[in-house]
Amino acid sequence: MPLSAELKNQHLEVTRRYFLQLGAAGAVAFKIHSAQADSDQSILDSATADMGYFTAQDDFGTVERGDPLPYKLPLAKRLEIGLERKSWKLDVIADPDSNSDIGNQFSSDSGNPFGFSHLMKLAEKHAVRFLKIMTCNNIGAPLGMGLWEGVPLRHIIWATKPKENIRRVFYYGHHNNDPKQMFRSSLPIGRVLEDPPGDNPVMLCYKLNGEWLTGKRGGPVRMLVPDAYGFKSVKWLKTVVLTNAYKANDTYAEANNDVDSWMKTMSRFYLKPAKAKAGEPIPVTGWAQVGVGGLSKVQIWVNPKDKELPEGDPYFTAAPWKDVKILPPPTHWGGGLPGGKLPDNVRFFDSNGRPKHWPMRYTLAHWAALIKGISPGIYDVRCRTVDQNGIAQPMPRPFRKSGRNTIQRFSLTIEA
Ligand SMILES: Nc1nc2c(c(=O)[nH]1)N[C@H]1C(S)=C(S)[C@@H](COP(=O)(O)O)O[C@H]1N2
Ligand SMILES: [Mo]
Questions:
Q1: How far apart are the first and last CA of the chain?
Q2: How far apart are CA 140 and CA 411, in angstroms?
Q3: pLDDT at 223
Q4: How many Å lie between the centroid of ligand 2 and the Cα of residue 257?
Q5: Pocket test for ligand 1, best of 7, 72, 138, 231 (most atoms within 8 A of CB)
Q6: Crossing angle of the two packed helices 41-49 and 5-22, in degrees rounded to 10
Q7: Quick one: which ligand is closest to 135's CA?
Q8: How far apart are CA 363 and CA 329, in angstroms?
Q9: φ, ψ (nearest 5 deg) of residue 287
Q10: What is the pLDDT of residue 38?
């Protein structure tokens, strides 16, 4: 599945402005009207001011199962089964097949589920907002970039008065009472109760980009696991089970996926022209997903197609890679946020709404480059990331089922 159309448009805007700032040559190569290329600083400034970053809810790529899909049920049915904010209920129970001891279960069967009003009460004190990119480990490009809001799951767990014999949290969404349709995931209890410094909490999420989470995005409430691939972020969440079982029970585990995988750092091309004229600067752009290892560089490598590749170097570590420009944080955030503005109290932003560091882990960074001075011929152009440990993509974790991160390539013909 490709990056969502909206994310592409945003990328185009951001990078177009970057080339404008580089001057007319880049702008012309980018097919911008000459009037715009000649524009003065004030036009440049205002252009930069409204660049977008987030993906609107409806424009996210989607990975979903269910027949019927829960959010497509008639309203009366959604109200009945608790898939509207008005009627949403969560069971938070001890695993009946385990010896977990909790003092205060939230259970529909016992008439005291955890409801949406409980969640909003906790939100008054504990709501958090953070940036996170949604990516499926089995898809080569992200599904969307969002500002997510919710209540850390640990607050609900502490409200159940857990006592002992709890090692994992299992959870699943509405599945039409058909076990075959159940989509399950799980986490170690430790990850839910504590966050590594600089990371965000696992949360019960009810808003995206300042709006209530839509049914399609998993509303009224989905799990949101900041550092993991999409399959941990279960939609239409209805049940959380505290268990002493020590093994994962994720639906995705059944399909050979590495369910303990942190998100990886990787780069993808967006603008990759098939042809260019010798002597003209060639704009090439893309984005980087910032995984657990962080991001220090994005690099490209332009190599004549007929040149033999060195043996025993499958990841081209010895190639003459060149750094490209990672673009600064946006000032207009897009995604449907009113006025393109971030709300207050976004994690890792200061009181002026500026990020404390950039790029941030588990988010998206845009990049751009101008290729110059190559002679006529056919070339392979590749891009890769280098993480904060100095390790280049696809290392340190090249295996496919822990998240796609192969080095991408395209063919470029330079005409005389
Ligand atoms: N209930 C439920 N939750 C789910 C899924 C699902 O099929 N059912 N798919 C998961 C997978 S595999 C991914 S990659 C993400 C995708 O999230 P999105 O559709 O909001 O982009 O949702 C996850 N949550
Ligand atoms: Mo997925």
A1: 35
A2: 19
A3: 98
A4: 10
A5: 231
A6: 160
A7: 1
A8: 11
A9: -135, 160
A10: 35
What is the DSSP secondary-structure string of 352-370?
Answer: TS-BSSSSPTTSEEEEEEE
pLDDT at 41 (0 to 100) = 38
The pLDDT value given to residue 370? 87
Report CA-CA distances (Å) from 332 to 4, 196, 356.
19, 29, 17
pLDDT for the residue numbered 7: 63
63 lines ligand 1 (CB under 6 A): yes
DSSP class of residue 107?
Answer: B
Q: How far is CA 164 from the centre of its chain?
A: 34
Distance from Cα 323 to the centre of ligand 2, integer Å: 31
- How far apart (Å, rounded) are the C-alpha atoms in residues 209 and 341? 10
pLDDT for residue 49: 38
Side-chain half-sphere of 280: how many Cα atoms within 13 Å? 18
For residue 321, which of 297, 299, 337 has the smallest C-alpha distance?
A: 299
Q: Residue 268 forms beta bridges with which residues? A: 287
| CB-based contact 283:19 (threshold 8 Å) | yes
DSSP states of 184-244 as a string?
A: EEEEEHHHHH---TT-PPPEEEEEETTEEPPTTTT-S-EEE-TTB-GGGS-SSEEEEEEE-
CA of 261 to the centre of ligand 2 (A): 12
Ligand nearest to the CA of 143: 1
Instruction: Give the C-alpha separation, 324 to 407, whole Å.
Output: 15
Tell me whether the omega of the peptide bond preceding residue 359 falls within 30 degrees of 0, making it cis. Answer: yes
**Model confidence, pTM:** 0.90
- Residue ranges in the chain whose pLDDT is less than 50: 1-2, 24-51
pLDDT at 42: 36
> Counting atoms of ligand 1 from 1, which one is nearest the CA of 136?
14
Any residues with CB less than 8 A from the CB of 329 and at least 6 apart, and which? 53, 354, 355, 358, 359
Cis bond upstream, residue 196 (ω within 30) = no
The torsion angle over the Cα atoms of residues 341, 343, 344 and 345, rounded to 10 degrees, is -120
Length of the chain: 416
**How buried is 71 (Cβ within 10 angstroms: 0-12 exposed, 13-18 middle, 19+ buried)?**
buried
- Which domains are delineated in the chain? 57-255 (3.90.420.10), 264-415 (2.60.40.650)
